[in-house]
Design goal:
Blueprint: H1 26-41, E1 46-48, E2 58-63, E3 66-79, E4 82-88, E5 91-100, E6 103-109, E7 115-121, H2 122-134, E8 144-147, H3 150-154
Antiparallel strand pairs: 1-2, 2-3, 3-6, 4-5, 5-8, 6-7
The protein binds cobalt (II) ion (CO).
Amino acid sequence: MALRNIVKDPDPLLRKKSRPVETFDKKLHLLLDDMRETMAKNDGVGLAAPQVGILRRAAVVEVGDFYVELVNPEVLESEGEQIDVEGCLSINNYNCYVARPERIKLRAQNRDGEFFELECRDFIARACLHEMDHLDGILFKDKCYAELDFDEEQE
Ligand code: CO
């Protein structure tokens, strides 16, 4: 495994729509392993392939003991609303509030191409949706609901 360089905003690569993953081979496994390692090294909770310069629909999310690899993910259902602070490994020194669904049901493929469904809520749902936005060239700052005020940034 190896660390990969993280593409930073405003690199135009982050604004492109990624293509589906079609080949579930060792190269994909290596990419996912590297993405997990790169995310962990940078204290992130999620990383999408375009953030390491690969325009393919793949992302990893790791929140505490929860870890998932999402290949070609799609939202099947969403419900409710939550508003909380987000950040991004591709955007240094910036956070803002983003509104997301409270609960979602996803369908994705794993690293071997097998389909699975995932139901999640709260912060994990937020992290999955943030990463899925990257696959469509959307950054969280595009969805900024409110800026943090100065006092909050100091915490
Ligand atoms: Co991000």
